[in-house]
Amino acid sequence: MHGLGNDYIYINCLQEHVDHPPALARVISHRHTGVGSDGLILILPSETADLRMEIYNADGSRAQMCGNGIRCVAKYAMEHGLISPSTAAAMNESWQDVRIETDAGVKPCRCQMSDGKIETVRVDMGQPVFDSAAMPSTINGDRIVNYPLGLKRPEPQASACANVRSCLVVTCVSMGNPHAVIFVENLDSIALEVAGPLVTDAPEFPDRINTHFVEIDSAQHVTMKTWERGSGATRACGSGACAVCVAGAITQRTKRKITATLPGGDLVLEWADDDHVYMTGPAVEVFSGTWPI
pLDDT tens across 179-190, in order? Predict the structure, then answer.
């Protein structure tokens, strides 16, 4: 399944069992010798919500949250009968609520239904977190806003990094997982494969950080590119787009409700008056199959 091209392999662990998820994620996610994906998501039973999701990046590392992934889990749960339809669905209303437990807490999802299918999901991504220690980051201060991050270029990559500025201004927001947002004048001038890892793997972020380069098109529209820790360049990042929405608002670059254009398509984000960030976007099932043990 995918959300704007941010593709994961999903396993229904109400029926299946996975012994070693990190090892399976590395093998099955490989673009040339596996199925090919940005990672692996397990759909599991939950004691606090309708279902629980566990996320593993393509390199086997564990992720706390995935905005595009959770929309797909909600769609799968409804269309494959993992949860019972609510009273609203039985009354032929156009929406269905699903609550999904993640490592970043329980996230309510509102699925837009049409002829029994779900194409769009609105997710309550919760409150943004600015605390430096929560990223975690070694940068001092309660917030990392418009912070000049000096980049340390590894000697073997020095020539490849020659066109990357030695200092980038970052604003950091956690949406259950950490994000560094960098506003640029010309997105096409950014060599993502070079600049992305320099920020993601910067020593100021001991657990690494997801990195987003953003061009402001207007106060209500941005265009962005993403380098995800554990997966590299991705077509979209839902939690990252939420972080971009918040970062744009607190730095007074954008409104609190925006459309973000990612390589895979558009997401609608709103940092609402209740301090929660709401993300709306598509979810698509591509195919199902059997993986040999």
Answer: 999 999 999 999
The model's pTM: 0.89
Place of tokens 């973000």: 260
43 vs 119: CA distance, rounded Å: 19
d(CA 32, CA 21): 19
* CATH class of residue range 132-280: alpha beta
- Out of 13, 72, 172, 237, the active site residue is 237
Q: Which of 13, 66, 111, 242 is catalytic?
A: 66
Is 111 catalytic? The answer is: no
What residue spans define the domains of the chain? Answer: 2-124, 132-280
Q: What superfamily would CATH give domain 2-124?
A: Diaminopimelate Epimerase; Chain A, domain 1 (3.10.310.10)
How many CB atoms sit inside 10 A of residue 230's CB?
Answer: 19
Shortest CA distance to 246 belongs to which of 134, 149, 125?
A: 125
66 is catalytic: yes
Give which of 88, 94, 91, 122 is closest to 108, Cα–Cα.
122
